[in-house]
């Protein structure tokens, strides 16, 4: 049976009496059911909220709450609350701001956001399954198997692992449409689908789209080697055209997102040696455990993101190497089948393009430089792209199930053997430990949680056994597809539920309640201190919190570096300097890393308590300290931040009924009601309002000669400027050299330097008023002489080839003024001498205007393109999309073999050049 004949194969017989969309609805319904069963127990336990652990609680929940609140209030330009300030759409585009799932959440009040996270996650699983079905169904005769393949993809190891990073699901959900678009344009002359899929993927997430674009190129190259792939020069050019058109159509979102990451340090890393490009290493040695983890991800259910248990787990002696594997999304596993189907397919179809592609992708995961192609060239180990490999594995599995001539015994046996040898060093390896008395003891595992490896092994080998019996006794029977779906769904719910349960083991019930009470449901209106019964301890002056002046807040660190209040600013709706967000403006990174030096800004801003100079410099007025059952918060007296009040000036809390809270954090009882304080608030007595001037400056190269641990104390004393602009600043301010400063000042001398700097700024020329909004800010000040007024706002001005793409612009007394970059990444503007000088900064989201124009033009071209081929060329796709009447046997019909040799190469060249269909001799 030839490929053309197979395209007319009656695969619609199962649709008799059913809607044409039956299998799409079945796929969606099963995906919704399984995802609901995975999350429902945890949602019910927390009264409708899905609380997970780690970054999920610190990022996913507050990010969505904050962004929804910003969008619904119309503040979609500059975000004052994220770190020192950020471009809302651009800097959250990696997480969710350009995702359709996020915009669905925006239809509901922000108070509903935490309750929508689980339902939206379920929706993402549904969309992923439906899109995967649309792609897979063309390659199998039994649509039930395509439904199974769709569920394999939607609930593969990468998807379950990445519940922790649930924004990854947004791109994964629509990815199969890109491959479907390629197939439809080349095989069926269906115009526009590929362009639309590119537009969707590029618009949702720039990072994932970059990897998907690379994958599409690789997919096309391997697919084009197939004799059944009817690619011609003309079709190839139209494919490129649709790819470019799709990107142009997405530019309203894509351009803004890409511009937001320019200058990010993560993009500047490169492989330094040939060895590092070809082999995974740690400390210049070959990192053998990483290879084990990669192979484990193919054959076993995934570890939870923060606790990799295979190959050593979190053994203290190996904690650095284990840490390097955490949070990398190293997960692929195909539910129930694992690698059995893929290996069976490859063994029986060794020369198939799909077999070669799968092998190539596995090699890519093992070679650093090839792996980096899928993660924007990042040299760190990230396996965020493994879902693409999972889709190919699911495709190979369903084809192997669909084609009765493909034998499975070898694939199942090979998978079992490989899995066994992966399991041995992970679970049955010996480890010596020495106790306090000096005795050596031996244990049978290096894992911190050996039971988890055992559970993974049971599920994995149980899946193999189930697969064997299904294929051995039911394949070819009418009930095969239905029975397979039942066991597949049971496996998905089992392993998905176990995975989420294990993650929840790393957050106690009391910590979950803390997330709910302290953050999600907390009332952050700061109460006047008279509400506290012990007025002597708290103080008598009520705190007027109506935000009449701009200030930032801080979260108290219960140690020199440990911070338990990540993203408190997002939860509270107040600007804060503690921020866990890796995609903030690059200027924030250069400020902390290049100028401050003592604060490493990578994925988060977490300045330790000891750097008190940063607090006044960044206009921090209040610090929030968690109530740990102690009125002044445990440890605050010992580690209080210099310059802040010793006693709280306010208590932030809420009134609850006596039965709602079982905690020591209760201080005031009035009948059945109790006042429950989540935080106490301490005030910065050295607070510097936003917008002030300096009386001297230092070159950045001179400033950075100061010891890193001391620089913070000098921030309020000298304006730090780029070396190349020092001559210009010298016309208005005296320059101070490093040699003029006291070397190695004592702790008390540093405090004196800091105090003098703050006092000089307060007594000098500074802004009398400061107003701010999402569109910018304005200030008024008196200046005794020409000077530069400084604002601790990130510098964000974008241009390309001399074209202004947006960002900040400034006016002084109504005239345009040049914005100066100072302190490595913050802003200042020159002002003349005079009174009531008006300073205005306006923010236009970089790339928004140009992107919108390009998107509109792109959709116009797209409309004309489709209209031309449909109306004038009378070109129609070879089948109706929902008819289920199309089947591509990939060149493996009766008597055919889709192999690549000299003869087939000649045939392929003729098809490529002249577009003539191949005919069987």
Explain what this protein looks like in three dimensions.
The chain has 34 helices and 26 strands. Among the domains are: 522-566 and 606-683, no CATH class; 692-849, no CATH class. It has 921 residues and is of the alpha+beta class. Strands 7, 8, 11, 12, 13 and 14 form a six-stranded mixed β-sheet that branches. Strands 18, 19, 21, 22, 23 and 26 form a six-stranded antiparallel β-sheet that branches. Helices cover 45% and strands 14% of the residues. Helix 17 (340-348) crosses helix 21 (409-427). It is globular and about 90 Å long. Strand 18 and strand 19 (776-783) form a beta hairpin. It starts with a helix and ends in a 7-residue tail after the last helix.
Q: Could you tell me the number of beta strands?
A: 26
Shape: globular
Residue-averaged pLDDT: 84
Please summarize the sheet with the most strands. 6 strands, mixed
Rg from Cα: 31 Å
- Count up the helices: 34
* N- and C-termini, Cα separation: 13 Å
Structural class: alpha+beta
SSE order and pairing:
Layout: H1 3-7, H2 22-45, H3 55-72, E1 78-79, E2 86-87, H4 88-91, H5 100-105, H6 113-136, H7 143-154, H8 157-161, H9 168-188, H10 193-204, H11 206-224, H12 233-249, H13 251-260, H14 274-278, E3 281-282, E4 285-286, H15 288-299, H16 319-325, H17 340-348, H18 353-366, H19 368-371, H20 386-402, H21 409-427, E5 431-434, E6 440-443, H22 450-473, H23 480-504, H24 509-520, E7 527-528, H25 535-538, E8 552-555, H26 568-572, E9 579-580, H27 586-596, E10 604-605, H28 613-617, E11 620-626, H29 636-639, E12 650-657, E13 666-670, E14 673-683, E15 692-693, E16 697-699, H30 700-703, E17 719-721, H31 726-729, H32 747-763, E18 767-773, E19 776-783, E20 787-794, E21 797-800, E22 803-812, E23 815-817, E24 819-822, E25 826-831, E26 834-844, H33 848-872, H34 902-914
